[in-house]
Specification:
43% helix, single chain, alpha+beta, 182 residues, 5-stranded mixed beta sheet
């Protein structure tokens, strides 16, 4: 879902090559398996850091994609992995990205992640990141202000799997997501 929001974002507000940024957002949780069974907030710290390390490692031909992923993961792990912080200057150099532009892009990635997280867990959420305020209702409606998208609204059908029996039994569940100006 984060990728859908990123793809609809105004490219002129993203300080990185736009297509690379969108791909990085799409892959920002690539350390997890496609049908992982590692419950967020419940997995043991050692296992979670293993997942984060797997995602942090460069995997793309585009260094900006790897940088977007690395910034997201570094923000999540904080000081738990000093090697991530040590690796960032080389990632910035490889992508030709300044620290300021990287921080600005990561703040937007964080916004996408927060909206997606609230939606996927059917939880209400609200906050402000930089100059952008967001709300998410448990039912799947969300708002942003000021409006940063190139479309007047964003409506998507998101497919997940019913938690009961997952991942052994994959029972698809569809939910509508709607993002509107506040």
């Amino acid at each position: 879902m984060a990728e859908a929001i990123a793809a609809a974002w105004r490219p002129d507000t993203i300080p990185l090559p736009f297509e690379s940024f969108v791909r990085g957002v799409a892959l920002h949780d690539r350390g997890y398996g496609e049908l992982d069974n590692d419950s967020l907030g419940e997995v043991e710290q050692a296992r979670w850091l293993e997942i984060m390390r797997r995602g942090f490692e460069p995997q793309d031909d585009d260094p900006v994609v790897d940088l977007v992923v690395a910034l997201h993961i570094r923000r999540l792990v904080g000081n738990a992995t000093p090697e991530f912080t040590a690796a960032l200057p080389a990632r910035l150099e490889a992508g030709g990205v300044s620290e300021a532009d990287a921080a600005a892009a990561d703040a937007i990635t964080n916004l996408f992640d927060r909206i997606s997280f609230s939606f996927c867990f059917e939880e209400e959420g609200a906050g402000t990141i930089g100059s952008l305020a967001y709300t998410v209702a448990a039912g799947g409606a969300a708002t942003l202000a000021p409006w940063p998208l190139v479309v007047p609204e964003l409506v998507k059908t998101v497919v997940g799997y019913r938690a009961d029996g997952y991942p052994g039994r994959l029972e698809p569940v569809e939910r509508s997501f709607r993002l509107d100006p506040a």
